[in-house]
Amino acid sequence: MQSSQSSSSVSSGQPSPTPVKEKGADYVYFDRTTAGFSADAIPRAKAAQLKLEHYYKIAVDAAIERNTRRVELERKLAADTAMSDERKQRQLLQLGKKESAFLRLKRTKLGLDDFRTVKVIGKGAFGEVRVVQKTDTGKIYAMKTLKKEEMLKKDQLAHVRAERDVLAESNSPWVVQLFYSFQDPTYLYLIMEFLPGGDLMTMLIKYDTFSEDVSRFYIAECVLAIEAVHKLGFIHRDIKPDNILIDKEGHIKLSDFGLSTGFHKQHDSSYYTRLLESANGVQSPTTAARNSVAVNAIHLTMSNKDTIATWKANRRKLAYSTVGTPDYIAPEIFLQQGYGNECDWWSLGAIMFECLVGYPPFCSESTHDTYQKIINWSNYLMFPDDVHLSHEAEDLIRRLITSHDRRLGVDQIKHHPFFYGVNWNIIRNIEAPFVPRLRSITDTSYFPTDELEQVPEQPSDGDSTGNKDLAFLGYTFKRFTISSNGF
User: Fold this and answer.
1) Distance CA 197, CA 249 (A)
2) Which of 257, 307, 388, 476 has the fewest CB atoms within 10 Å of its CB?
3) Residue 381 within a domain
4) Which residues lie in Low complexity bias regions (predicted)?
């Protein structure tokens, strides 16, 4: 009977019932409740759970990445019929050695002591940027430090994570490359490539305006850089001349992704609110996700001098202030009514206007007035009579600084008559209109370091305790590179 019942289960495709065993008298039943736990047991257990989950996720992801690199190399070698088997084997062995070196690097804990400060080249609301030298290899990097306490206080956790993720996921020549990220109880550290040519803002302050040919070069490279960020699944949201850096060849790279979003859960501020509250045993009501730029703090009032002269005089101060400058931010971001990557093209239009005219289209004596002009952009977008622009240049600006539903997309921008003659495939290989003249690999002459206030040789100590560090779980990163440039 049992045999026929089993065969019947197999033929019908249904699982056979599992016989229930009788529990003995000595069977122990556990009541799964937290009623008897101490006050700090639940937060500590939650923290341990998150750390374990993260540990094994990182281990599995790393194994998958190693296997993917091996398979890709094998596929590439198999397709190369001209290469000898001996040479193919050498390349596979070289990859194996490189993977072993990378595993050793990942096991090594990086810290501030591994880097020596050469010079501070930037200072912002939440941290600093320093040129540093790695003590064991002598390689030069730019080190960005962010104070955890300020990140928590100003609700910047989602923005910090988005910036780290953009840099970690990108291999694009249009994005500043991240080599390492690590943390200590006080600071987050991003170790990036050092671009010695300064930024586009410094060039605009120095030269006032660019010709249309020079503007065409920089705007075309910006188009490709923004497109690269969008292909990664991110929106920059803070495209401005300060964040367009110049490399040693004179070509541009995008930096400072502190306001970017990939619309991942870890790029949403409410995710961190729930994480910290759950780690501390607090239950909070579900709130709507938000991916917005903070705009309530626009209150920095300037002097009552001539608008344009005042804007130029205060431009560098705004770059270092907590408020920042709203000159390049699209109106739909301020209105918080939903937006997509088209907001970055508005910013590009504002930068193009500044390159050709000498100041942004909506600059005012106060950031509040600028904000009002951007919201009512159709009433305030005007081209000065004393600046002659070609029809193509003015048309492109008007097609970028417009309502989001009428704004040009990347393919339409590339085919606009203003870019006639631009070879989009080789533009990074042609000679740039401005190539930095560098005296050494640590030359910082293109950065206005004399405008910075006195800063200490090393970041100052601070305090960060409790489960707050859970918000920065997974921030550590080390880049695998086929060449030895990264480590």
Assistant:
1) 8
2) 388
3) yes
4) 1-15
Look at residue 265 and tell me whether its pLDDT is greater than 70. no
| Measured distance CA(428)–CA(426) in Å, rounded | 5
Same domain as 344, residue 412: yes
199, 238, 242, 344: which is the annotated catalytic residue? 238
Whether residue 24 is contained in a domain is answered as no
Average pLDDT, the chain: 74
pTM here is 0.66
What number of other Cβ atoms are within 10 A of residue 201's Cβ?
A: 20
Phi and psi at residue 359, to the nearest 5° = -160, 155
In a domain, 82, yes or no: yes
Q: Let me know if 405 is a catalytic residue.
A: no
- How confident is the model over 176-210, as pLDDT tens digits? 888 888 888 788 888 889 999 999 988 988 888 89
Q: Total structural domains in the chain?
A: 3
Q: Say if residue 299's pLDDT is above 90.
A: no
Specify whether 152 is located in the same domain as 221.
no
The single-letter DSSP state of residue 468 is: G
- Distant-in-sequence, close-in-space partners of 254: CB < 8 Å, separation ≥ 6: 174, 175, 176, 225, 226, 228, 229, 236, 239, 243, 244, 245
Residue 42: strand, helix, or coil: helix
Check whether residue 316 and residue 246 sit in a common domain: yes
Q: Show the domain range for 172.
A: 112-195+452-478
CA dist 167 and 176 (Å) reads 7
The answer to whether 414 is a known ligand-binding residue is no
